[in-house]
Amino acid sequence: MGTRLPAKLWLDEVEDSCMSQIMDLTSLPFAFKHIAIMPDAHAGKGMPIGGVLATNGVIVPNAVGVDIGCGMCAIKTNLKAEGFSYTDLTSIMSKIRAVVPLGFDHQNKKQDQELLPQGFDFEEMPVLKNQYEACLKQIGTLGGGNHFIEIQKDTATSDVWVMIHSGSRNIGLKVANHYNKIAQYWNEKWYSEMVSGLAYLPMETQMAKDYFREMNYCVAFAFANRQLMMTRICEAIQAVKPETDFDPMINIAHNYAAWENHFDQDVIVHRKGATRAYE
């Protein structure tokens, strides 16, 4: 397949493997308008992490990625960095480790079901209906890889912030892999001209509708996951620094797909390691 669309790059140097994936994206027959590549882009599974792909009428599971809904949240405190001692920090980190499981660890006991996203029917979600118990033990857990909890200092103001990077844990992985395998199977069955790692599902099919529903649950779960961790982290900070107040939480996801209107056309925009820009 040859290049169909331009790619807009917000970086000067691109590794060869990433550039190869960018060229693949520009050749997709269902890609819309242009491909957008962010400053920190690097090769991922099928598509660069730090890439944005808009499509006409199809959804691509690997263009969202396996950690569906992964994102960042942050809260500003009323504290100044100068008010923290080494003992304060070590005590806070110890308390956080006691209430937020890390790495592959899950909760020792099921969490309250009210902490899970509401408004979804598990019976309408083929993958997640078998993961309900897992959801109750994965909510409020960090995960591994590049996920983190940080207590940060604003170098300009000395304000103390709390930041979390985490996603939908193992349930997002299961949803992503399940529907990518389905997409691969049907693309081969339809003799579709398919770029490696970028199998797709037409949006009018039940398979695509099921993926879209389960993906949206994972996005909501990832937000609820960060929210619960942040609540428990704030409680840990207040246990050591009772005078702490917190601003409202800022949250944004960077692995998802959504219907959006661009250039007067409704398209599915896939963001993988990228966030939407707002005026």
Automatic annotation (TrEMBL):
Cofactor: Mn(2+)
InterPro entries, alphabetized: RtcB, RtcB-like, RtcB-like_sf
Record GO biological process: DNA repair; RNA processing; RNA repair
Pfam assignment, any one: RtcB
Highest taxon of the lineage: Bacteria
Catalytic activity of the protein: a 3'-end 3'-phospho-ribonucleotide-RNA + a 5'-end dephospho-ribonucleoside-RNA + GTP = a ribonucleotidyl-ribonucleotide-RNA + GMP + diphosphate
The UniProt record lists the keyword Protein biosynthesis: no
Signal peptide: none
Keywords: GTP-binding, Ligase, Manganese, Metal-binding, Nucleotide-binding, RNA repair
This enzyme's EC code(s): 6.5.1.8
Key word Ligase present: yes
Binding-site positions, Mn(2+) 1: D67, H147
Residues engaged in binding GMP: N146, H147, F148, I149, E150, H254, N255
Co-factor note (free text): Binds 2 manganese ions per subunit.
Gene3D superfamilies to which the protein is assigned, alphabetical: tRNA-splicing ligase RtcB
One term of GO molecular function: RNA ligase (GTP) activity
Protein name: 3'-phosphate/5'-hydroxy nucleic acid ligase
Species name: Bacteroides ovatus
Lineage: Bacteria, Pseudomonadati, Bacteroidota, Bacteroidia, Bacteroidales
